[in-house]
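Table 4 source record.
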Amino acid sequence: MRNEYSVQTQALCMAYRGKAALNQVDIAIQPGTAVGILGANGSGKTTLLKIAAGMLQGYTGRIAICGQTDTWKSKHNVCLLSSNPWHNPGWTIARTAQLFEGFYPGYNTAGALQQLPALGLSQGDVLGRLSRGKRALALFVLTLARDARVYLLDEPFSGIDIKTRHLMRELLIDMMTPQRTFLIATHELVDMETLLDEVIVFAQGRVVLQGQTDVLRAQHGKPLEQIIREVL
């Protein structure tokens, strides 16, 4: 496995109760890129992100994060935003940030809390009393306040209103640097396409399409969404 890749897999396989969730997955992702992980529900997207985050064991093949093949040891390099992020609905945003600060090395509490007023949020907001969109936005800001090299975002825009998606998209743009890599599992290609350097498309646990977005559009002479529809 090579140190120059942020995320690399070789013949990665994972099965649940005898059914393949990932099947011989080989990917190599360069640092400083934003990669869309696309595919239907159950195609393997979330499984890949959970393995990369060190949350799943029992797979075969290999995976390396920034050259480190022990995903437990590589956790300090990884930040995962789950499709169902954990939160205590009775806690304020500030208290949740304090919990994250105690749990994650290098957590930027001050940076997260400073962003809240511009997003229509405050430190004293109780998560369970916020609208779905505002709560998702708060958890998005709090989760991404980690100082990591690889950010794994599982359906960050799912079920979120257009205004909130726009705010989250702008936050992502502000975070992107040559040192940070983003893997974004999403169905919201319209919102994300201009941010993505590359896409990896899954179907039934296999990679059925992978490439740089501008190269794929040039090769096929079609919009990216149409290319993806044709391979699924």
